[in-house]
Amino acid sequence: MTHSFRKSLLAASVSLAALLAAQAATAQEAVFVVAGNEVGAPTYNPIKATMLNTATGLIFDRLVSQAADLSYHPWLAESWDEAPDGMSWTFHLKQGVTFHNGEPFNAEAVKAWIELFKTSEGENAYMAEAIASVEVIDDLTVKFVMARPEPNLLYNLSSTFMSVVEPKSFVALGDDYGVTEVYGTGPFKLESFSIGQETVLVRNDDYTWGPQLAANHGPAKIERATFREIPEDSTAFLELKTGGVDMLLSVPPDLTGEIEKEANLAVVTLPGADVWYMPINVTKAPFDDIRVREAAAKAINQEEILASVFGGVGSIADTFLISALPESHVSESAKIHYDPDRANALLDEAGWVKGADGIRSKDGQPLKVTLWTQSDSIFRRLTEVVQAQLKAVGIEAEITTFDSSMIRDQYKTGEQQLAVRSYNWDNADIVDWFFGGDRLGYPNVSMFNDPKAEELRAAAMTGAKNMEERIANFTAYHEYVLSQFPMAPIYQPVQAMAYNKDRLSVPEKIDSPSFGSAMFMDLEVKE
To answer: Within a domain: residue 508?
Structure first.
């Protein structure tokens, strides 16, 4: 081999390497970081999971999609009709849809999916319990015969928990469905899943039936999407800043200003669907005394927290529901606000006497309690402020910190007294979820099981013939729960997402309640 030939070969190799590197740099691949409250999701099985992350909504589609204004729109169902008495719903399905494993999506698949959903042992079966049976009218028409009217049916069908699974593989894989393999009809397929670490999705090239609310109906523009789980917000921000990731799907308010200082980063927001709150275990002394619960709840200064912890971004929470929901409109007297005079008076009345050190005691025992939180920096900061506010009325709270992915298992022990946590949901049935007497430990962290509440809960969940009645029933249920102080509302954030604007092109308008398929279908990697 001559010197000149070797030189030419080397030059060609370098050129090829440069070309491949350039192609890799411009490939439609992106790395995302899931929200902190989604870290540790153990499965992509929507029927059985109590916790799902954003990637779930890309693996699966739903029959119905929901817009930012909470209205409902076609997706896998092109249209639907509700009987005047609410006792049946007929759905007309989209033609030409297939699951990732090649099975057809049709009326028979919907019937099998609903039957699996109803008979599962999962916590989510209640979302389909009002459906008595499913009738196949023809290949693309299915009728839900109802056991009772369910005004909330369209919301349930738009929920990620009612993502349409492929029935045959669901049965065949058993507990492995959603962990080792998972098949939906969504714009992305599962390539790999490492619990607590990352999920890799690849584009479904056959996808042409995206949600009506997206400009692009498919296939997605991004070919490969990696979803990393980084519990620590500051670590996630550093990764974004240094180019290790392209987008953070949730940004705490304390980092928003730092992100906006970076020339290549941008923040986009949506109305929030979160409430941050302090659950109070009603079964653990001293909180088995409602006076002590109310005192702890009214020791929380929401305005101070909004300003000092969250930089004034978002709003205070004074009920358990986001303020956009009509069921949050309880009487003024039921709303829970900061009232230190009331808190001190209640503790005096309950026999807890403030000592020289400011901590109360009773029968020689100090008013010392545990305050659980998770390891994320924003939770720790908030919890320290809550600790100081409780101390101001004489309650000494000792903070115990758990890893974000482990704290749910700790709640199941029922040993917590106080905690600081959040949820993300935009429907009033979250009151049922977190305060239902049959879900003690987790998700009912407050261990709340009250006979009157259970009566009101039944009326709210199953007693309404139409949406007007449902709102009235849920408002009454919500108001009663607030009156028993199993929690203290703290804060309502906006949904904020940060991204590298040199790498990604984000749609100007995101017409959905959250960062789901409607956004991802129109997301593009810049070349």
So the answer is: yes
Q: Tokens at residue 304, please?
A: 């101070």
**Ranges assigned E (strand) in 351-428:** 353-354, 360-362, 365-366, 368-374, 396-402, 418-419, 421-424
Backbone angles phi, psi at 203, to 5 degrees: -65, 140
Q: Where are the beta strands (DSSP E) in 312-390?
A: 315-316, 353-354, 360-362, 365-366, 368-374
- Asked if 512 and 464 sit in the same domain, the reply is no
Give 182-206 pLDDT, tens digit per residue.
999 999 999 999 999 999 999 999 9
Q: Whole-angstrom Cα distance, residue 140 to residue 232? A: 46
Q: What is the count of structural domains for the chain? A: 2
Return the CATH number at 220: 3.40.190.10
**How many Cβ atoms sit within 10 Å of the Cβ of residue 487?**
28
Helices first, then strands: H and E counts in the chain: 16, 25
Which residues, listed in sequence order, are joined to residue 278 by a DSSP beta bridge?
488
Peptide bond into 286 cis (omega under 30): yes
Considering the domain architecture, whether residues 96 and 225 belong to the same structural domain is answered as yes
In a domain, 360, yes or no: yes
Residue 143 corresponds to which tokens in the numbers above?
């009728």
Backbone φ and ψ of 19, nearest 5°? -65, -45
pLDDT in tens, 312-358: 889 999 999 999 899 999 999 999 999 999 999 999 999 999 999 99
Q: Which amino acid is at 342?
A: R
Which letter does DSSP use for residue 177 in this model?
B
Q: Do residue 515 and residue 466 come from a single domain? A: no
Joined tokens for residue 225: 């999407």
CA distance 68 to 71: 7
**Please, are residues 14 and 230 in contact by the beta-carbon 8 Å criterion?**
no
What is the Cα–Cα distance from 161 to 3, expressed in whole angstroms? 65
